[in-house]
Amino acid sequence: LTNKGVVAGDNPMTTKATSWSDSLVTFGFGAVIALTAFLLISPLLMIVPMSFSSGRYLEFPPPGWSLQWYHAFFANADWISSFWVSLEVAFMATCLSMALGVPGAFALVRSSLPFKTFFFAFFSLPLVFPVIASAVALYYVLTSLHLVGTRFGLALAHTILALPVVILPMTAALQRFDERLEWQALNLGASQWQTLWTVTLPLLRPVLLTVMLFAFVTSFDEVIFAIFLSSGSTATLPKRIWEGLRFEIQPTVTVVSTFMLLISTVVIGLVALLQRKAGYLSANKKKSVPWNPIT
């Protein structure tokens, strides 16, 4: 039969079989994603009820409910001191990484700097290089500079880890930025600095805030560098947790972990809100420009 307009793809049986196949594939991918998310999140969710345990040791499920470990955390000067040290170090590392990473991203995208591919790969090294090897190397370098055991020395080390978190997203954002907006400002008589401060940076504000939050969390949660480079008076919160699990297993560490989990959740929520506001980076262009670090 050769009815006009009838092709093999119009066969109802074939269409139904294809639909079932697509549904099975979609269900399979959904199941894998759900299982992966469960395996990643369930250990974190166990921490929260364990922090309200009435027991003397870590156990799940808790034998009872109590706020005794929250009281123990706030009554312990060492935990509070480590919390403020973590905040101070994370603040310094964030400022340093932003001060170095944002101009570095502009240089990689906007300038005629030679060997851009090399510099881009160099700034990406902390993402692939073993952290413990970097910690050992930095220990000897900072020892010669008498910075081991200082907050500034630890902040310098955290800056190395936070730089890729700043440079890579900023590079991608700048490559998708609509430069016609800057050209219009320049044509209207604005200087390059005025264009930067009144046009470019305000439009990049969501991306800037996002990378700043990621840099802060990268430093705040880091433990390997803290183990090698901090001392008793400059121990960060993650290092104090590690010591608590190593020398005395008490539910106080679950309280600290709950606070850190809460901070990370808030940061992720803020990043999600900022990403919703960053749609203008590609919305002003008719065609999507593929991101290529080699420019």
Overall description:
73% of the residues lie in helices and 0% in strands. The protein is built from 13 helices and no strands. The chain has helices at 12-51, 68-75, 77-110, 116-128, 131-144, 151-175, 180-187, 192-203, 205-220, 224-229, 237-247, 252-276, 280-283. It is globular, with a radius of gyration of 25 Å. The termini are far apart. The model is unreliable at 1-8 and 284-295 (pLDDT under 50). Helix 3 crosses helix 9 (205-220). The protein is mainly alpha-helical and 295 residues long. The longest helix is centred in the first third of the chain and has 40 residues, at 12-51.
**Separation, N- and C-terminal Cα atoms:** 57 Å
Helix content: over 70%
As residue ranges, the low-confidence spans are 1-8, 284-295
* Shape, principal axes of CA atoms: globular
Order of helices and strands: HHHHHHHHHHHHH
Question: Helix- and strand-based class?
Answer: mainly alpha
What is the helix tally?
A: 13
Task: Give average pLDDT, whole number.
Answer: 78
Give me the Rg, rounded. Answer: 25 Å
The fraction of residues in strands falls at under 5%
Short description:
The chain is mainly alpha-helical.
Task: Give the topology, please.
Elements: H1 12-51, H2 68-75, H3 77-110, H4 116-128, H5 131-144, H6 151-175, H7 180-187, H8 192-203, H9 205-220, H10 224-229, H11 237-247, H12 252-276, H13 280-283
Keywords:
mainly alpha, 73% helix
